[in-house]
Design a protein that fits this description.
304 residues; mainly alpha; Tetracycline Repressor, domain 2; Four Helix Bundle (Hemerythrin (Met), subunit A); 2 domains; flat
């Protein structure tokens, strides 16, 4: 009896370990951003013809779809993930999962998430989720990432779609408002990832991924970060001037976007390598806070 009990406990531990590895494979931090922006897009939509439980199940389907895309990304990039300090502890490089397991899980999750969203919501939302997964896997991961330093500029479109999906869950369609939310994330993405690539440039060089610091150097990267932070500003404040959001949103978005430019300008003017590394880390951290704060301010403005 003692041996049987021990084996049962070991089986349960292994199962929990395996489930945790699958969850890590889905890139939970990236998934949390997709879920959050999707929920914001849903909540601010003008009308909601969705049952309460169907809405929850629809958001869960989007989360699964985001995780599926992340899983397929980890499957395809397992060879370079093991070379980079930022990604070497992912489930495939550490041996927690095999590439075959990741591929099977990613494919099944993709079909289940799109099918569930179609079942619980509508064809527009399901089509947008399918587009998001396909774009992230085939356009960004397989086609662009190892071929061009503009990988993150074009590939960023997939990460910008969740608020549009949330809006379409509520309304069954797409209008100018969710497109603005899409553009905010789309214009934010390059500076966010290029800031990361500045202090992780050795990783990208080792993995032979053509991120901007590797192909064009530090100065060109800093210049592009500043350019995109400036381009982000009018897009970020546009909801107020287009009368989509009110003064509360402007009081958040204006100073946040101004400070984003300030840090980017400070980074651009820096000539000391240690200061550059410190400022790039600061910008990367602030960029995450920035996007969450922008979308929180959207909710506050809508429901205040």
């Amino acid at each position: 009896m003692l041996n049987t009990h021990t084996k049962t406990r070991e089986f349960k531990f292994d199962l929990a370990h395996y489930v945790r590895a699958l969850f890590e494979l889905m890139k939970p931090r990236v998934m949390s951003l997709a879920i959050f922006t999707c929920i914001v897009g849903f909540l601010i939509a003008p009308y909601k013809s969705v049952d309460y439980w169907y809405a929850i199940l629809s958001i869960a389907a989007v989360a699964l779809g985001s995780g599926a895309a992340g899983s397929l990304n980890c499957w395809y990039e397992a060879d370079v993930d093991k070379l980079m300090s930022r990604t070497c502890l992912r489930p495939i490089p550490t041996g927690k999962l095999t590439k075959k397991e990741a591929l099977i899980f990613g494919v099944i999750s993709s079909f289940v998430s799109v099918g569930a969203l179609f079942l619980f919501s509508n064809i527009m939302a399901a089509s947008l989720l399918a587009l998001t997964i396909l774009f992230y896997v085939f356009v960004y991961t397989i086609w662009l990432k190892r071929k061009t330093p503009q990988n993150i500029v074009i590939g960023g479109a997939s990460g910008a779609l969740p608020p549009v999906i949330g809006w379409s869950i509520a309304t069954g369609g797409v209008s100018i408002e969710p497109i603005i939310l899409f553009l905010i994330i789309f214009m934010w993405t390059p500076s966010h990832f290029w800031a990361l690539s500045l202090f992780k440039s050795e990783d990208y060089k080792k993995a032979k991924i053509p991120m901007l610091p590797v192909t064009s150097g530090v100065e060109a990267t800093k210049k592009n970060i500043l350019l995109y932070s400036i381009l982000l500003f009018p897009v970020a404040v546009a909801p107020y001037y287009l009368e989509f959001l009110g003064i509360i949103y402007l009081l958040f978005s204006f100073p946040l976007s101004s400070y984003y430019i300030f840090i980017s300008l400070k980074l651009y003017r820096s000539k000391d390598s240690k200061e550059e590394k410190s400022l790039s880390k600061q910008l990367f951290a602030f960029s995450i806070l920035y996007l969450f704060a922008i979308f929180i301010s959207i909710l506050v403005d809508k429901f205040a």
